[in-house]
C-alpha cells in the first residue's frame, strides 16, 4: 500500500536539497550547461526558481510503501486558478518498475481533487522516456516542447 504522508521539517530539508541537486544534474545533462552556470541563472531569475517562489503554496509528501520511505512528491498549488504544477516526483530506483509511480500519481491526483484543483501541469525531460510514457498513459497531454531545456510541458484536467 502506498501512503502520501506529510513531511517533517527534517524530511523537507533532505528531500528539498535532493530535488534541487537532482534538477541541476538533469538540466545540465539536457542542456550541456555546467551546473554552476545553471545555479547562477536560477539565482538571477528568482521568479523562475521553484525553490524560491510561492513556497507557502507547496505540497510536499513523503511516499511510503510497506512502511518504508521510498520517495516524495512536490507540487505547487494555485488555489485562485485551481492549478497545480508538479515540480517533482521521485521513487527510489530499487522500487521502480513495480507500478508504484502510477499509484503515487493516482493518489496525488485524488489529493488535488480534495483541494479543489482542476488542472495539473508538469515538465519532463526528453531523456526520461519512462516517465513520459507513464504520464501519457495517465492522461497527460503535451502542450509544448522547450528546445533549450529539452523539456516537455504536459497538462491534465483532473
Task: Characterise this structure.
- The chain has helices at 9-31, 35-44, 100-114, 129-138; strands spanning 2-6, 58-65, 68-78, 83-91, 119-125, 141-146, 151-157.
- It has 158 residues and is an alpha+beta fold.
- It has one domain (2-157): Gcn5-related N-acetyltransferase (GNAT) (Aminopeptidase, 3-Layer(aba) Sandwich).
- The protein has a seven-stranded mixed sheet with strand order 1-2-3-4-5-7-6, with helices on both faces.
- A hairpin with a 2-residue loop joins β2 (58-65) and β3.
- The protein is globular, with a radius of gyration of 15 Å.
- Pfam families: Acetyltransf_1.
- Keywords: Acyltransferase, Transferase.
- GO terms for molecular function: acyltransferase activity, transferring groups other than amino-acyl groups.
SSE blueprint:
Elements: E1 2-6, H1 9-31, H2 35-44, E2 58-65, E3 68-78, E4 83-91, H3 100-114, E5 119-125, H4 129-138, E6 141-146, E7 151-157
Parallel strand pairs: 4-5
Antiparallel strand pairs: 1-2, 2-3, 3-4, 5-7, 6-7
* Main CATH class: Alpha Beta
CATH architecture: 3-Layer(aba) Sandwich
The percent of residues in helical segments reads 25-40%
Mean pLDDT across every amino acid position: 91
Low-confidence spans: pLDDT under 50, at least 5 residues? none
CATH names the topology as Aminopeptidase
Q: Total helix count?
A: 4
How large is the radius of gyration? 15 Å
* Share of residues in strands: 25-35%
Quick one: overall form?
globular
**H-E string:** EHHEEEHEHEE
Q: What's the β-strand tally?
A: 7
Main sheet: strand order: 1-2-3-4-5-7-6
The name of the CATH superfamily reads Gcn5-related N-acetyltransferase (GNAT)
Note the gap between the termini: 23 Å
Domain N-acetyltransferase: 2-158
Organism: Halobacteriovorax marinus (strain ATCC BAA-682 / DSM 15412 / SJ) (Bacteriovorax marinus)
GO molecular function: acyltransferase activity, transferring groups other than amino-acyl groups
Keywords: Acyltransferase, Transferase
Amino acid at each position: 500500500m502506498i501512503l502520501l504522508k506529510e513531511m517533517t521539517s527534517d524530511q523537507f530539508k533532505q528531500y528539498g536539497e535532493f530535488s534541487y541537486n537532482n534538477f541541476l544534474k538533469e538540466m545540465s545533462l539536457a542542456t550541456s550547461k555546467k551546473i554552476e552556470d545553471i545555479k547562477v541563472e536560477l539565482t538571477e531569475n528568482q521568479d523562475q526558481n521553484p525553490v524560491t517562489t510561492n513556497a507557502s503554496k507547496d505540497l510536499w509528501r513523503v511516499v511510503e510503501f510497506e512502511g518504508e520511505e521510498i520517495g516524495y512528491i512536490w507540487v505547487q498549488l494555485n488555489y485562485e486558478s485551481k492549478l497545480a504544477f508538479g515540480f517533482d516526483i521521485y521513487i527510489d530506483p530499487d522500487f521502480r518498475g513495480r507500478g508504484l509511480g502510477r499509484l503515487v500519481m493516482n493518489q496525488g491526483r485524488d489529493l488535488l481533487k480534495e483541494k479543489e484543483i482542476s488542472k495539473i501541469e508538469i515538465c519532463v525531460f526528453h531523456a526520461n522516456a519512462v516517465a513520459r510514457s507513464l504520464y501519457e498513459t495517465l492522461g497527460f497531454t503535451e502542450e509544448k516542447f522547450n528546445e533549450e531545456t529539452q523539456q516537455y510541458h504536459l497538462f491534465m484536467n483532473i
